[in-house]
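KIAA0040: structure tokens wanted.
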Amino acid sequence: MEKISSFFSSLWNLIYTKHEQGLFNTICLGILLGLPVLVLLALLFICCHCCWSRPGKNNGHSERNKKKKKKKDEEDLWISAQPKLLQLEKRPSFPV
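Answer:
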């Protein structure tokens, strides 16, 4: 217990002396002490997001089958390159 209290007291003394030395040191200490907290919060958010947004096993297979059936039934809406070729053929050629 004494080791833990001595660690935190030495940490507090370091923070206090750096704060007295100037504003720049205070800002740097704040950033250095805040980065691990920020990383832990980001990891917690990512893990919770991955766990809560994971679909069930049955839902994933049924959605895939529905998408495949929709794709087969829908028409292809892509514009083909044939109109460009036709436009090029209609242009008059210049004599060389």
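Residues 23-52 form the longest helix (30 residues). The chain has a mean pLDDT of 76.

Cheers.
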